[in-house]
Amino acid sequence: MDKPKYKRVLLKLSGEALAGDRGIGINNEVVNEIAVAIKKVREIGVEVAVVVGGGNFWRGRTSEGMDRTTADYIGMLATVMNAMALQDALENMDVATRVQTAIEMRQIAEPYIRRKAVRHLEKERVVIFGAGTGNPYFSTDTAAALRAAEMESEVILLAKNVDGVYDKDPKVHADAIKFDQLTYLEVIQRELKVMDSTATSLCMDNQIPIKVFKLTTENILRAVYGENIGTTVE
Ligand code: UDP
């Protein structure tokens, strides 16, 4: 096989992706599958940073009646649960990992320190970032864009439950059309549901390409080898 296209990637896993078919909570089988994929990526010498979402437990913006910042902090805590579950699955497969959280919780994980995170990556450890950006009103997609910029990752691999970006929701509209390639501005102007606009702008300003594809072990590997799967935003 050819050489992988990237030396360092940032994998963004939505909370939903960790929940499997049930849509809520953590599905161990799914988490193990993801861990297998990450292990394979490590085995071909690619450095992997992961940002995990929390939507399988909680989303700040949809928690009616609650103070928004409080709701968002609960969401950030949810991402830490996912980070720990993924760490556990990886360590069971003898993949060295570190979890770093944007909100300090030292008994559970390291606090986020950029230089330390880079060092872990260089030492071939998988770094899992929890608690998003540490700020309410942001998303874990924005955390992914931010950490990708800070880690100087060459690409964001956005593994989702759908196989790419469509002009409308493919679950609702049978005639939805999938894009192979998009610019950041097209995503923002057409309000396409790839990432929120804050995250997309951050990627645009820092020229970080985003590859959106359906989460499978094979797809993660194909994306790392630079195959044109799903939709590429750049
Ligand atoms: N969140 C936040 N700041 C961040 C990242 C996340 O407040 O920097 C909160 C927010 O409430 C969000 C929740 O955590 O709804 C879970 O994250 P997200 O919705 O991005 O998870 P995903 O959709 O990827 O599962």
Annotate the secondary structure layout.
Blueprint: E1 8-13, H1 15-19, H2 28-43, E2 47-52, H3 68-92, E3 97-101, E4 110-111, H4 114-122, E5 126-130, H5 140-151, E6 155-160, E7 165-166, E8 178-179, E9 181-182, H6 184-189, H7 197-205, E10 210-214, H8 217-224, E11 231-233
Parallel strand pairs: 1-2, 1-6, 2-5, 3-4, 3-5, 6-10, 9-11
Antiparallel strand pairs: 7-8, 10-11
Helix pairs in contact: 2-3, 2-8, 5-7
Bound molecules: uridine-5'-diphosphate.
List keywords for this structure.
234 residues; alpha/beta; Carbamate kinase; 9-stranded mixed sheet; two-stranded antiparallel ribbon; 8 helices; binds uridine-5'-diphosphate
Nutshell version of this structure?
This is Uridylate kinase. The chain is an alpha/beta fold and 234 residues long.
Architecture overview:
This protein is an alpha/beta fold and 234 residues long. It has a single domain, classed as Carbamate kinase. Helices cover 38% and strands 19% of the residues. The protein contains eight helices and eleven strands. A nine-stranded mixed sheet has the order 4-3-5-2-1-6-10-11-9, sandwiched between helices. Strands 7-8 form a two-stranded antiparallel sheet. α2 crosses α3 and α5 runs parallel beside α7. The protein starts with 7 loop residues before the first strand and ends with a strand. The mean pLDDT is 95. Uridine-5'-diphosphate (UDP) binds next to α1, α3 and α5. InterPro entries: Asp/Glu/Uridylate_kinase, Uridylate_kinase, Uridylate_kinase_bac. Its main location: cytoplasm. Its EC number is 2.7.4.22.
